[in-house]
Amino acid sequence: MLSNSRPAGSSPALLALAFAACAATLSGPLSAQLDASAEADAGETEGDNMDEIVVIGGEFQRYSAMKADAPIMETARSVSIETQLDLRNKGALDLVDAYLYSAGVFGETYGYATRGDWVKVRGLDAPEYRDSLQALFGSYNNTRPHPYALEQVEVLKGPASVLYGQGSPGGLVNVVSKRPRTDMQSEVFLRYGNRDRWETGADIGGSLTADDTLLYRLIAVGRDSDTQVDYIQDDTALFAPSLSWRPSERTEITLLGSFQETDSRAGAQFVPIAGTLRPAPNGRFIDDSAFLGEPSFDRYDTRKNSVTVLANHVFNAVWSLETTARWTAGKADYNQAWPSFIGGDRYVRNPDGSLYGDGRVPRTFYTSDAESNQRAVDTRLHADFTHGAVRHELMMGVQYQHVTTENDSANLYAYGYDPATGQPDDTVGDTFWIDLFDPTYGNVPSQAAFDAAFTDGPEATTRDLGVYVNDQVHVGNLRITGGARFDQVRTDDGTQEQDETAVSYSGGLLYTFANGIAPYVSYAESFEPVLGVDNVTQRALEPREGRQYEAGIKYRASGFPLQATLAAFDIKQSNLATPGGLPDAPSQQEGVANVEGVELETLTRFGDFTLEVNASHLDTENANGFRFASIPSDQASAWLGYRVGPDVRGIRAAAGVRYIGESRDGADNVRTPSYTLGDLMLGYGFGRWDVSLNVRNVTDKEYLVSCLARGDCYFGERRQVVGTIRYAL
């Protein structure tokens, strides 16, 4: 088997590597003012009392998923939060790692990946937001966020169109950026892991004025790394400066910049089911490190620049105002060659029925130049007031978003393959094919071939204007939540334009008993525009609609550090494509999908130990009556942590176990087996130093995450060992 290899040369990580080194030098004058907080870890370590320990599970902030800092225990919704401490302890190297220990959340949908963080919440796609504004549009047109720049990762489960407009009925992910703080602890770190993974970074900040009216924060990360797939690197550089101005106790304006670039290749190789889940026709299996593209052709190089403004002002004891605004530009230069989907088991046979070339198959060569641009603003007016015995937390908002995407591409499908004969064609032949079991490289189609297949994709534009209101009413121990939103969405894909209007509603009831038990029920809706004309009705296609009923119990003990949520839910998504079994349907949108499930999340502390336990069960049915593709019916996880002492000094350790149940291919023909993985963490803090070791998939288990009806499977992540040294400045 070939070892990981890639050409020498400059790496985008060098920029951030150099910055981190400079930051350590330039921060000298800051160290004196930060000495007093050297024992803390930027407010991200576990606290000494019961309330702080429970907050390990996270709390909403001003720019969180609920667009308010309402306590989770008073929210009639299910939410999972991973704090910065959680991300650090669990060794999160990419955003997808933040989803490994959350009930009903599946982040490894397509196995080990370098192109994106595709997360499913309650079996359905979940859009990605940052600081309560959408952050990801289309496919393959910007970088993946780095966990080191995040304060916490939130998963809001269920429809959320009342707050966000168009979206998925499964829920959404909101990542919260690190912002300047007066109590933060500056640090630098150096990390090394297997597969020659080098990473370094700095998080430096504090006050620029004696009265703390001007605060700053500088975050930089540089990574130079190979991966578990041959010839694929995953290098990145991130620079995220921020500045906060606090002219008074009532006003704060924060400017966040983020400039990131990643040089990589696509980790997913789209390998056939025969040769992974079961033996290939020659009885062999494909190695999970096999690279089936072309080293001189494949690339996935992404860039993303964004500037965000977070502003809030308190007028008086009742009224306050918040605004979030962002400009974003993303770009991806994407080339990949992969084994073609030619039908059947995807292998070619000789005329006598034997396997062609003992596993030599045609490849598809794809090239893409994609861009995305966003201008968005969300302004919210809050009113917190009491009328008689009733207290209101009222929020009224206006949101506008203008997004453009464009993708110029060329696709050489099954290059050299003649579908009429099932053999190499007479023009190109098998020159560009590849042996799945013993790949060799060096042949790439000519530029003329790509030029002939080039498609100049039109610019697609989406404009969304939403007006919404949400009120949480307090009547004694009862919480009554209600919300409504009106959206007007204009979509133009470059060939046709469509206007949609939608009204979304949500509501919930929660009652908190004196013993800490809080039962709740809630209802929420979602919509997603669909561009096109219904060929049956001759009218514009209706938006996909979703609705969810949820009932659950939240519990927070008063005399013991324990927090738990048990939720049951029923989701229906309608206006999907009509199933093939309804040829005489009255429209093209008679399809309905259903999800029913139960989730449990608990967090507790006993002595020097913390224990997190999560479990979920999903019953899914797509429009054709089959289980959802790639979605495990059952998931369970547990994370046991141990720490000596009340601060970061001393020994700490943790062990986790993750069980992922079997999944199906979307047509109930192929079953991907369940698997169980273990993770470990060891750490020791002394003085200003902290060292830690994280091991994910400790037994180095080889496993498949999912297999799809179209004929491909996805390998899971093999053992990852990473050691980190941190120094508090």
What keyword list fits this structure?
single chain; 729 residues; mainly beta; 22-stranded antiparallel barrel; 5-stranded mixed beta sheet; 6 helices; 6% helix; globular; disordered N terminus
Describe this structure in words.
This protein is mostly beta strands. The protein is 6% helix and 50% strand. The chain is built from 6 helices and 40 strands. The strands form 7 sheets. The chain has a 22-stranded antiparallel barrel. A hairpin with a 3-residue loop joins β9 and β10. The N terminus is likely disordered.
State the gist of this model.
By secondary structure, this protein is mainly beta.
Number of strands: 40
Residue share in β-strands: over 45%
> What radius of gyration results from the CA coordinates?
26 Å
Largest sheet: 22 strands, antiparallel, barrel
SS class: mainly beta
Tell me roughly what share of residues is in helical segments: under 10%
Q: On the 0-100 scale, what is the average pLDDT?
A: 89
Shape: globular
| Unreliable parts | 1-56
The number of helices is: 6
First-last Cα distance: 44 Å
